[in-house]
Amino acid sequence: MASVGPSAASTQPALPSGPAVFKTIPYAFILPEIVCGTWVWILVAATSVSLPLLQGWVMYVSLTSCLISLLLLLSYLLGFHKNSENWKVLDSLYHGATAILYMSAAVLQANATINSEFSTNAPLNYQLNSAASFFAFLTTFLYILHAFSIYYQ
Length: 153
Known about the structure:
- By secondary structure, this protein is an all-alpha fold.
- It has helices at 6-9, 25-28, 30-46, 52-78, 85-116, 122-149.
- It holds the Pfam family MARVEL.
């Protein structure tokens, strides 16, 4: 018979708290996600938004994701999770859903980049939109890595 006591629960890896968050692989991706997502938002805001519907979605996804990821990072730093397994599920679901939303935003930003190539003030807007596209795809990749790396702990 298998024992289902306190010793079985101790084999699960503990969720990090405090500065250990920055040293543990899936959770160490949170800060780069926030930084790259902030760059997406700043770069899109710096352009003359020629396609407000497309780039509005990009700004919404990047800003909302940055704020929620910041709250998640603060909750890990302050230890709100109390080593509950539900936090792993929440973290994985959040990062998986955000990866899908960020992929849609990255594709729309790439479309806005292509359209900005032939607009007025083209060189500057094209360069800013290109950088925003790069960071949007990079942020998408970080969210995907975070979501899948929880399963391989």
